[in-house]
């Protein structure tokens, strides 16, 4: 397939590379920033453009992977080419494209991407939505060329997925950061706790998290929780967070495993 | 070394197996529950006992791996044997043993254990504390027979580690549970989000979490956060948690990577 990548951020970068590796042709890479466009275009052997008027109409698909609030305006400009257009945003309704064109869909990779970290795209869940059945078939076939985990997810479900991803990724990472800061404050090495972080995530690969919850809160071990709150006495924000999370765990409707 | 295991929970089970695999002899396994004692004792070819009066004095080390509030009373009963005693608790001071004996230490494996999940003990950080330098040497040598990650950590530091472990393990698992529940409420498969959970943890293996924070809060993307809060309108506890975690991320003193 001939694919034009609109955007040069983390998602655009990883998607473009995955398409290229699967044998598709990346026609152009567009970014407002000419240097960013040039860098990604170089990697995927495409033409860099930094002005939407330079878009080559000889393409099959526009993949719009830019900031959420820019999706609509860019789609409006691209609509005149009458090509299939998708966006890659978890938080944006397909209407953002349908307002301007009929041949549209969504191609949402549910993963956290860093430019500096390699990722095996075959493991990345790809969530597809399409304006009609023909487009759904085309996007699903395209998705299957780069991922083994292709799902059909409508806009309402995708909003929930995006929210769930915040709880599953952004918030845990913030808690890792708190742990790292606590250790650093007491001259302790973050490596001490890294295996615990990984094992906790790996447990969730084969178990439902509610079935493997451990810690003082799920045991309702008030003494340990009080000791922890005392250690945080100079950090009221963390005390509040500790209390709220612990209360949530205490209220969990589960039969916890023995923790000791 | 001849080792007696006091306890039959997750930590006792994994430690006993690791010691046995490293060539040590497990003399006895004690548990108040005779069946639990028998099961673990069978696995490590030891004698099961369910009464502390049946303890065999021909041992080199008592490993006390039981509920925190039972450590002191059991240590008091074992003190008469005049053997080296350690506890395995993150939240308990070494004084809990020193109150009754001089030959004491702490042997704290910083990992989350489930009886049903295999773990490579060589990767588990072992935190050692000892009442004197000779014991420190002996415990460190013992620890090195089962783990490649042996640290010397005093009681004050261990309290911080235990607190940090709650933020790095128990709380993230609870957030995974929230994500899973949100998906289930909308007929979405938890498998959709599992790769994201794992990748987030794997990023923390090589990066500091503060350097790889992503999501709407670190971009201060108020529109997306408001949309998420609206999705949680019938779940005020989750709204409160979402707000508190997002406020913490917004206040993070970091230079976030581009998220798109």
Describe this structure in words.
2 copies of one chain form a homodimer. The first copy, chain A, is an alpha/beta fold and 260 residues long. Chain A starts with a strand and ends in a 10-residue tail after the last helix. The longest helix of chain A has 31 residues, at 155-185. Chain A is built from 9 helices and 8 strands. The radius of gyration of chain A is 22 Å and the shape is elongated. The first copy, chain A, has 2 domains: 2-153, 3-Layer(aba) Sandwich (Rossmann fold), CATH 3.40.50; 159-250, N-(1-d-carboxylethyl)-l-norvaline Dehydrogenase, domain 2. The mean pLDDT of chain A is 94. In chain A, strands 3-2-1-4-5-6-7-8 form an 8-stranded mixed sheet, sandwiched between helices. In chain A, strand 5, helix 4 and strand 6 (104-109) form a beta-alpha-beta unit. The relative contact order of chain A is 0.08. Chain A has helices spanning 10-21, 34-43, 68-78, 95-98, 133-144, 155-185, 194-206, 222-231, 236-250; strands at residues 2-6, 25-30, 47-49, 61-64, 84-87, 104-109, 125-130, 149-152. Chains A and B meet through helix 1, helix 6, helix 7, helix 8 and helix 9 of A and helix 1, helix 6, helix 7, helix 8 and helix 9 of B.
């Amino acid at each position: 397939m001939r694919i034009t990548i609109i955007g040069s951020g983390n998602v655009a970068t990883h998607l473009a590379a995955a398409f290229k590796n699967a044998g598709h042709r990346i026609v152009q890479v567009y970014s407002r920033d000419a240097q960013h466009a040039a860098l990604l275009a170089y990697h995927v052997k495409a033409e860099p453009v930094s002005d939407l008027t330079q878009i080559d109409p000889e393409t099959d698909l526009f993949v719009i992977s830019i900031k959420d609030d820019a999706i609509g305006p860019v789609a409006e400009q691209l609509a005149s080419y009458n090509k299939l257009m998708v966006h890659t945003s978890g938080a944006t309704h397909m209407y953002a494209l349908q307002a301007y064109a009929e041949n549209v869909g969504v191609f949402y990779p549910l993963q956290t991407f860093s430019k500096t970290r390699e990722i095996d795209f075959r493991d990345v869940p790809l969530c597809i939505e399409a304006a009609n059945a023909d487009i759904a078939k085309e996007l699903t076939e395209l998705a299957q060329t780069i991922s083994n985990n292709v799902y059909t997810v409508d806009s309402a479900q995708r909003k929930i997925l995006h929210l769930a991803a915040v709880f599953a990724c952004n918030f845990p990472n913030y808690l890792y950061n708190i742990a790292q800061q606590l250790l650093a404050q007491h001259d302790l090495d973050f490596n001490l706790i890294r295996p615990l972080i990984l094992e906790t995530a790996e447990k969730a690969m084969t178990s439902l998290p509610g079935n493997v919850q451990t810690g003082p809160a799920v045991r309702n071990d008030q003494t340990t929780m009080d000791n922890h709150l005392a250690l945080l006495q100079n950090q009221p924000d963390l005390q509040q967070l500790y209390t709220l999370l612990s209360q949530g765990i205490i209220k969990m409707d589960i039969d916890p495993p023995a923790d000791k």
